Amino acid sequence: MESVSKVLRKLTEEEITTELFDHFDRYQKVEQCWRKVDGQWIIKDIAFTEQWGQADYCFLVKCLKNTVATGGVVWACFIDEKLKGFTSVEKELLGSRKQYADLTCIHVSADARGTGLGRALFEKAAESAKDLGAEKLYISAHSSVESQAFYKRMGCVEALEYDPHHVEQEPCDCQLEYCL
Fold it and tell me: Which helix (H) or strand (E) holds 162?
């Protein structure tokens, strides 16, 4: 059996480049999504495939660099020195009482899903949020059945307070929170 080297660590701004994502595959085939209809959550047949291209990675690099530059945190997981997962938490707190730290992204490469990386990254994001003084994590999360199942396993619930900026940016996302 081959030995696998797995490393989880914070990234510096200088490390965040498009080349970092050379072995990362943001692929997801979606067939069903959660939607709120008349105040009730239902599953709807909504099929599409998400596959990030070079432009998506360039935009992501800009966003992640900004997270670190403004005092937020980006955690990355490397398997055999190749990036296979990452998460980011912003420094600026959200909510009427500044109770939320914003988990702006969490992704695991298609070839590394189901290995526990998502849970490990989520736990690091929660630690970072606590360190930033938050009571809860705020997650504007992809509404696919698979993504929502992950967040439910982590203990997330519908946010008590929706962030208007996130709702405007991604109206189909589910707005979630996680108590720290």
Answer: none
**Helix boundaries (H) for 20-159:** 54-69, 117-131, 145-154
Domain boundaries, the chain: 6-179
- CATH fold of 6-179 reads Aminopeptidase (3.40.630)
Q: Are strands 136-141 and 100-108 parallel, antiparallel or unpaired?
A: parallel
For residue range 42-90, list pLDDT tens digits in order.
999 999 999 999 999 999 999 999 999 999 999 999 999 999 999 999 9
Dihedral sign, Cα of residue 13, residue 16, residue 17, residue 19: positive
Give φ, ψ of 52 to 5 degrees: -75, 140
**CA distance linking residue 46 with residue 96, whole number of Å:** 33
- Measured CA to CA, the distance from residue 110 to residue 117 in angstroms comes to 11
- Tell me if the pTM is above 0.85: yes
